[in-house]
Amino acid sequence: MKLPIGWLNDYVSTEGITPEELADKLLNIGFEVEEIIHTGEGIDRVVTGKILNIQKHPDADKLSVCKVDVGSESLTIVTGAKNISVGNTVPVALDGATLPNGVRITASPLRGVMSYGMLCSGAELGVDDNVIEGAEVNGILLLPNITPGTDIKDALRLNETVLDISVTANRPDCQCVYGMAREIAAMLGKKLKPLNLKHASVEYAQTPTVEVKDDACSRYTCNVISDVKIKKSPEWLRDRLRYVGIRPINNVVDITNYVLAEVGQPLHAFDTSFVSKLGIIVRKAENGEQITALDERTYTLNNNMLVIADNEKALAIAGVMGGEYSGITDATRNVLLESARFAKGNIRSTSRALGLRSDSSARYEKGVDYESVDIGRERALALFSMLKAGKVTCAFAAENRVKPQTKKIKTSAKKISELLGIEVKPNVVAKILKALTFKVETGGDNLTVEAPLFREDIENYTDLAEEVIRFYGYDNIKSTFMPSAKTTAGGLDTRQRNIDFLKSLACGLGAYEISTYSFIAKKTADKLNLPQDSVLRKQIELLNPLSDEYAVMRTQLASSMLNVVAHNFSKKNKDFRLFEVGKTYIAQELPLKELPQEHDTLCMAFTGEQESFYTMKYAVKEILRRFAVAPEKVEYGKKSYYHPGISCEYYLNGASFCSFGKLHPLVAKNYGISNDVYICEMNLNGFISREIPNVKFAPLPKYQTVERDLAVIVREEVPAGDIIKTAKNADPLCVHAELFDVYRGEQIEAGHKSVALSFTLSSPEKTLAEEEITTAFNNVLYSLEREFGAKLR
Amino acid sequence: MEESVKILTDESEAKISSCATISDLNDIRVRVLGKNGELTALLKSMKDLPPEKRPQAGKIVNAAREKLEQAIAARQAELEQIELDKRLRDEKIDISIDMRQPASGGLHPLTIMRNRITEFFSSLGFVIADSPEIETDYYNFEALNIPADHPAREMQDTFFITENILLRSQTSAGQVRMMEKVKPPIKMLSPGRVFRADEADATHSPVFHQVEGLVVDKGITMCDLKGILDLFAQKFFGKNTKTRFRPSYFPFTEPSVEVDASCSQCGGKGCRVCKGTGWIEILGAGMVNRNVLQNCGINPDEYTGFAFGVGLDRITNIIFGINSLRTVFENDVRFLKQFN
Which domain holds residue A223? Predict the structure, then answer.
């Protein structure tokens, strides 16, 4: 909210306190001053000047050369303006002046004649007719007779300081000048001056009636002002509206806006001639009921929306905007002034649903309290009276649909002190609360506190504790270390520890961790060439996404990873390993009826000259080994975004939980990727929460191990991995076997290949004898012959 | 005889000292001292001497042998040293060259900072807790004292999936789940991903991370909150860091505060980092609202507690001097490598 210092001073004196000091103090009681605005900021070295004479420019038909008295001296100034004459007072930008649009004025020759400044228009000074009549004419701003040399900021009243204050959502009562004045008075220990609510009332022929039919309007009041004279508001009032960012319109509208800014009560003025029988009905709209509002647009309402109506038609969308015919025009004679309280939730949903916001709806959404309905109305009537804008009449009507309850809180200074952790004496508590206009009864340490009605945020003693410490000062809170708390055992659970371990493994494998958004584009499914019936297409959609790019929750991490890979390629980064551990979101049914499953998932991507399917396979197996996970089954990859012949799936508990391999060339193309990329996705749910079993130490072999090599010829389709596995199981002495070569060539029969492996023989009991070694070797060979029809090469 | 020994000794000594390789030296040894060597031959010729001269001659020959053996050993050591020096010289490489090796990878800066924070609070007895990222309205709002028409729902624009299911906009949602399951004493830290409908720019991201702390026990006070946060600030922003509480508003705490740390860059004098104020806003905190305790079945007249919420991305950026949140989610490898 915007708080002009001059306006504030009407209610509490801040004399001797700079705006900066005020801002610091306000921060300590919970109000952050976001900006200290000096109106007229940007204008420097612009003064009033009197034109002494005007001559034609010797070399330019369209220019004139003026002599201008600027107080201390008279200057020669060249101008192109046509609307000036000798004796006019005008704004003069001196040599070195700056204007609000950032322009700097320097003395310089114009067509051969030195000009020592510039005569300014209203637009050049950033002012309009609301600041001074004539500011919007095409030409130089002609001022009334003001002493030459007067700073233009003083001449045009551009010298106010305005604090732009951020008010937290629990304090709607501080969204107005008087509310802030109340806090500042308490803060400075000064008296809060009362509002002027004085006005006389005259008789009026007709008495209005009010009928409230819905609880969303808890209180409705209205009062007739007769013989209204629509005119411009006085300068001081227009100035103040400008300072708070409201455009002055006419005296009636300005008064309602002034009251809104000053006491926070939205008001609405109806022309009485459009209110049938002066009978106001506050009701819910009919479904489909239409109203054309002051903005000349027609809105279709529903039965959650509140309207102000007479017995024939809706006059206004309650709290949001008036109807076009009920508004104030130059012909308006009598005004029915509404001051009411509507439920904030109702106004918010109406405003949202209609896409229609106004100063009034914005204020109602924050919450208008019960008492300000009367204060606001009386303040407006006082202003009508003071400005002679019309005759305040006795024609008044009101209905209280829902009565407010005053809240009495019984507590003690001890309780408040116990929450704060420092001792605050009962008299200090009482003093602070009283300064904030709370009613306080003390009895020893006990306190009975009644919060004013405008403090709807106050519910219990903790709220009072906050009020106390705000003004007592947070500086008084000391550091303690939970002397009364029990000791607890902290730390990570198994799953969290395992995820950290997994990340350290991935780092050890040379991968860098990335972090990407959890939502992705819906069309990602197509980019990954997912089949129409793929479960990965069961994506949870957001109702209000930021854009199509971030519209659904991801069911896989690969697409985010590929975006990052592509981004890195575009930055000429190559040869890298990346990983991410994140959630995938799996819906049981769509649309969601219950919370979806969130699966911990690992995704890796390897790319670079040294990378292959096998480097990725090594990484995957290394991770699984460290988590003691043995896949039940291995198959060639089935996912649409992997190369079908260079990828595979691992199974656990009957389901594929891990897939990895080379990116499918078509998907690579969709992502604009031309280098080879190997990716892996692993659903961690099956094992990540499981404690990794303790290692059982195996004694190191005491006796020498023996190594033997073996090359066999098998049919092409026999997987080399199966040969190794069979070799390992062929004899108890065989403790290790590994592949060292696969050869296809002239010496080998077509459709066959030579597989060379080396295996290690060892016994825990003795050094192996030659015949034992031969037997083991033969066992390996026999097994391979039996299983695969292998022949010794 | 004596003459011959002397001549042989002098000649051999000259050869030994001038020989250039160990194999030449060996040749000399064999030629002079070997079984058929020249000195050995002289020794053998002693049998032609009269017996009374033989002892004297034997002495002379043995002395010469000893002398030559020493000379050979000394030269051998010299030559070995020369050879070693040469070899080491020849093996010299260009140490300015860098060779590509499999790198060790590394964690994302957000994880690094998250780990530091969880470690710190674990050591103070805080349990690390996780909760769902897709939440119900109840846990994200209602149980946190934010009913349907509450102004706090205006403060943050939430992503919705259905009327009742949403992306959590604050890790505080996990507070309630914790307190429903576990009764005091509670010390919990819940780091996690949260979502708000903000367009991405240097300081905003629709996806970001919070670390939520919660303590509930008998007699917990605002001074205890200050104590923990002072420790936290000193740990992460330096020993001399001070904290400042400013009144604020969160529906789930009362009283509520914003917490500033004195700027570690300028020590509180005011600089670009702290925008001239000397303070950097680091987190929001407060005493757990009675209604929230009640919603979780904890008696607020028996227990009190505090909660705080740190913006992990913000802290990470401050500590590492990262100037844009966008960079954090771009994952450029050159960026990732800087932290590892």
Answer: 209-400
A692: in domain: no
Is B137 inside any structural domain? Answer: yes
Do residue B257 and residue B314 come from a single domain? yes
**A489 part of a folded domain:** no
Report whether A662 contacts A673 (CB < 8 A).
Answer: no
Q: What is the ipTM of this complex?
A: 0.86
- pLDDT tens figures, B171-226: 998 889 989 999 999 999 999 999 999 899 888 899 999 999 999 999 999 999 99
Residues in A closer than 8 angstroms to B206, CB to CB, are: 517, 519, 546, 550
The answer to whether the CB atoms of B247 and A474 lie below 8 A apart is yes
Provide the domain limits for residue B215.
109-337
**For the domain that residue B321 is a member of, what is the CATH number?**
3.30.930.10
| A30 at B interface, C-beta within 8 A | yes
Q: What is the CATH number of the domain that holds A24?
A: 3.30.56.10
Q: By the 8 A CB rule, do A125 and A100 touch?
A: yes
| In-domain check, residue A484 | no
For residues B37-64, average pLDDT: 84
B154 and A169 within 8 Å at the Cβ level: the answer is: yes
Establish if B97 belongs to a structural domain. no
Instruction: Answer yes or no: is A604 within a domain.
Output: yes
Find, among A267, A268, A230, the residue nearest to A249 by Cα. Answer: A230
Do B171 and B314 lie in a common domain?
A: yes
* % of chain B beyond a pLDDT of 90: 63
Residue B250 vs residues A67, A513, B307: alpha-carbon distances, Å: 63, 34, 11
When CB atoms are compared, the residue of A168, A488, A513 closest to B249 is A168
For residue range A628-642, list pLDDT tens digits in order.
999 999 999 999 999
Suggest the residue from A165, A424, A462, A539 to mutate for an interface test with chain B (most B CBs closer than 10 A).
A462
Specify the higher pLDDT residue, B100 or A775.
A775
pLDDT above 70: residue B154: no
Task: Test B185 with A486 for CB contact under 8 angstroms.
Answer: yes
Q: Does A348 touch chain B (CB under 8 A)?
A: yes
Torsions phi, psi of B9, nearest 5? -60, -50
Residues B54 and B126 in one domain: no
Domain co-membership, B264 together with B320: yes
Give the pLDDT mean for A196-222: 94
Enter the tokens of residue B192. 């996690």
Axis crossing angle, helix A372-387 with helix A251-263, rounded to the nearest 10: 140
Would you say the pTM of this structure is higher than 0.95? Answer: no
From residue A671, give the alpha-carbon distance in Å to each of A569, A605, A623.
Answer: 11, 14, 28
Contact B223 A366 (CB under 8 A): no
